Amino acid sequence: ASLATGARQKDNIFYEIRTYDIKPSKMKEFVEVVNKYFHLRIAHSELVGFWSAELGAMNKVVHVWKYDNFAHRTAVRHALANDKDWQGKFISPALPLIEKQHNEVAYLVPWCQLGKPPKEGGVYEWVTFQMKPGGPALWGEAFQAAINAHVNTGYTKLIGIFHTEYGLLNTVHVIWWNESPDHRAAGRHSAHEDARVVAAVRDSVRFLESQQNMLLIPLQCSPLK
């Protein structure tokens, strides 16, 4: 199946991707507050992962939340607003440390299940593809083929693929896991010499506007480590 709109919406589960730019002098303090008090937030809804950017961006964190539907998210947000511990222990000290906040709503593509790394201690690569307008009907099949070509090389582990519903449309976020940055670099080098990968990527990039990569390190509270 391609990234068909109908297929991804047969269940109502969606993911909120939240990206925060932290004040450069406050990153250490922000991480300390997260490590100490973020369990208060996780008590309200499911956290998929929480990472800080190591390469490709600086002083940035990304966290992903899973919701059953929009009513579920509304109920969670209402409960958080009324949670005095969360507001007092985390929100009050954390907000002055944040420069900017951004959120998106996205669905997992129907041909990808949310995965887990084979072990803890690796690194995550967050790749954002801005595709040409026209949606999955235009570029979904070619994009899937390019992803599968990389998966089939075996050098990297696919964690998840998200397609935006709110935010900048025609955006696809792909999360990969690797044992280390050097392992990823070696795998990428081999993949670029694989004729099957080259052919699939060449077909897909016809629909690509831009691409951005970040190397991410999971925080203590992250279920994906």
Could you please describe the fold and organization of this structure?
With 225 residues, the chain is of the alpha+beta class. The longest helix is centred in the middle third of the chain and has 18 residues. The N terminus is likely disordered. Belongs to the NipSnap family. One of its GO terms (biological process) is mitophagy. This is Protein NipSnap 3A.
Structural key phrases:
single chain; 225 residues; alpha+beta; Alpha-Beta Plaits; 2 domains; 8 helices
What is this structure, in a nutshell?
By secondary structure, the protein is of the alpha+beta class. Helices cover 36% and strands 34% of the residues. The longest helix has 18 residues, at 136-153.
Task: Record the SSE blueprint.
Elements: H1 5-8, E1 14-22, H2 27-37, H3 39-42, E2 46-55, E3 60-67, H4 70-81, H5 84-94, E4 98-108, E5 123-131, H6 136-153, E6 157-166, E7 171-178, H7 181-191, H8 195-204, E8 208-218
Antiparallel strand pairs: 1-3, 1-4, 2-3, 2-8, 4-6, 5-7, 5-8, 6-7
Helix pairs in contact: 2-5, 6-8
GO cellular component, one term: mitochondrion
Protein name: Protein NipSnap 3A
Family: Belongs to the NipSnap family.
Beta fraction: 25-35%
Mean pLDDT over all positions = 93
- Described by the principal axes of the CA atoms, the overall outline is globular
Q: Could you list the spans in which at least 5 consecutive residues all have pLDDT below 50?
A: 1-7
* Distance from first to last alpha carbon: 30 Å
Oligomer: single chain
Count of separate DSSP helical elements: 8
Order of helices and strands: HEHHEEHHEEHEEHHE
Total DSSP E strands = 8
